[in-house]
Specification:
The protein is α+β, with helices and mostly antiparallel strands. The chain has a domain at about 10-175. It has helices at about 10-25, 40-50, 105-125, 140-145, 195-200, 220-225, 235-240, 250, 275-280, 285-290, 300-315, 320-330, 335-350, and strands spanning about 30-35, 80-85, 130-135, 150-155, 160, 170-175, 205, 210-215. The chain starts with 10 loop residues before the first helix and ends with a helix.
Length: about 350
Amino acid sequence: MIPEEIIEIPASLQRSQFLAAASVAGFQLAGAAPAAPMDDYPIYNQWVTGGLAGPMAYLADHRAPLRADPRSLLSSARSVLCLGLLYNTPGPAAPISRYAWGAGDYHDLLRHRLTSLVQSLEQVWGAFEYKICVDTAPLLERSLARLAGLGWIGRNTCLINQSSGSWFFLGEILTSVELEPDRPPPDRCGSCTRCVDACPTQALVPAPDGRWRLDARLCISTWTIEQHGALPAAHRSASGQHVFGCDICQEVCPWNSRAPFTAEPAFQPANPGYDLAELATLTPESFRQRFRHTPVWRAKYAGLMRNVATAMGNSGDPRHIEPLRRLATYPDAAISEHALWALGRLERIA
């Protein structure tokens, strides 16, 4: 959008207007970071070029250099407005990551809220140039959110807020309006290593600069969401009963023990539970109907069924033998291979 008129507003008033509008739009966290070259980009570049992104080759594609500076996406950007939307809800323990419990796609809700926020700000600031971004954009959004004061990046590599923990989605508005930037909070992890100790695959690794990094090649979330085809045998037993994502490093974090719950209807659990035997009965069509507009869709039918078979094999429950025999006859090679592997484990127990 091209600005028609520049309205001079005192910086303190501008900030209070932004924070008030962000709250009205439904965001629990809000702050501003400068639109400037990112000091963390060399670290990101080392991470992807060093192979730690695993099968997520898209993180190193032609868009990767854009992450070096937010102005690559909007040349007139002076500030990056960073927003956090809490998704923490009470619910039964599930083999599906918490962020995917709701019935819809969080990207859609984030974009809607960010658009509403821009419209509110235009009413008080006048027209300005902007670009709305969610986690699909080539931005170092955790680094930007840290600069905007939303939290610090913990040993589990998640952004952690002192009051809200790490159960929140991030969204950004690149804007031609220059706001006074917030200050990054101190790192409050201290000597705690609960996330590092709890990770069953040792996917959290120390870096030479003293920070911690995620080795996505060892991460259960990567295996169950991003990796296609059959998984190596060592990955199968290590993935436990996770069928989509893994929250272990967040669940054990002390800062999440006090995290508030959200009342947002879109994030409430859409199912009372995710029973493995019930998931094993899904057909491609019923999978589409149930998960088409949720994050689980990213795994695709073959990926989810492969993961269900693996989880059954790791359950030690012989009641899963019959469902696995059905999955073993499925024409997809990865599904049948994992089902046969799981049958071998359970039949030794039965």
